[in-house]
Amino acid sequence: MPPCHPHDASSMNSCAGPTERLLAPLRQTVESTHSNHALFNDATSMKTLLFDLDGTLSDPLVGISRSVNYALTSLGYAALPETEFAQYIGPPLDDTFKLVTGAPDAEIRQLIALYRERYAETGFAENTLYPGVEAALNALAQKGSPMGICTSKLAQFADKILRRFGIRDHFGFISGGDVGVTKQQQIARLLSDGTVDTQAWMIGDRSVDLMAAHANGIESVGVLWGYGSREELSNQLPRRLLERVDELPTLADLQSS
Question: Which GO MF terms are attached to this record (predicted)?
């Protein structure tokens, strides 16, 4: 085994333990989205609001459904009706393709590559911001709430979507997912590198968001305007369950109480 030099990037994998190696892709995902990552560690203080993107801040249905069907039909699978897509928004993309096709891993990778090909060109622009989100984020910013993104999307796609809506500057960092990287692992990385601490709150519309938060010892908030049902979210016992987008600013007051 080669000698370990912790400050040499080429030997980081040999220095890392099993957990560190598993989470290593997340270090690049988070840090590559903002050049002043260390500054945001100071600015995020103790109570970061960690937002999911799809189904929480924006509605991705059109872009995701068309990109998934592009991938499926490219490899000879039948397209799915748009009415079936709600259940697939939120979980990681590889899980969706496995559930739909039952294909082996090599073909799942092909499907994901085809999906991303279309999504990078046009799918991201088929995303729509939920009404009231911009005003809610402005209100949270005025209250001094530090905010970040934790999404199953690639960070580069999330960044493009947020910039397109003109809300990127509200977020100190973006944690994006990838094949084989769960949201639970993303939050673990954000905690371990000091981007957030255990007083952060995860806000999302699916059980996977709330479960990832609780597995890492942080609070969760469920939102009901996305793709998760009331029952799905209530079963995870979130700190709050929000009915409307305009309730988001109340989280700053709740955190400080």
Answer: protein tyrosine kinase activity
What pLDDT digit, counting tens, does each position of 207-245 carry? 999 999 999 999 999 999 999 999 999 999 999 999 999
52 belongs to the catalytic site: yes
CATH T-level fold of 37-58+130-256: Rossmann fold (3.40.50)
CATH top-level class of 61-126: mainly alpha
How far is it, in rounded angstroms, from Cα 221 to Cα 56?
11
User: Are 23 and 192 contacting, i.e. CB atoms less than 8 angstroms apart?
Assistant: yes
Q: Structure tokens of 134?
A: 């911009």
Contact, 47 vs 201, CB < 8 A? yes
CATH 1.10.150.240 occupies which residues in the chain?
61-126
What's the token pair of residue 79? 């397209």
Please state which of the ranges 22-26, 95-99, 108-112, 204-208 shows the lowest mean pLDDT. Answer: 22-26
pLDDT digits 0-9 by tens, 59-77: 999 999 999 999 999 999 9
* Cβ neighbours around 81 below 10 Å, total: 9
Burial class (CB in 10 A: 0-12, 13-18, 19+), 39: exposed
pLDDT for 9: 35
| Cβ atoms 145, 252 nearer than 8 A | yes
Question: Which among 8, 42, 52, 178 is annotated as catalytic?
Answer: 52
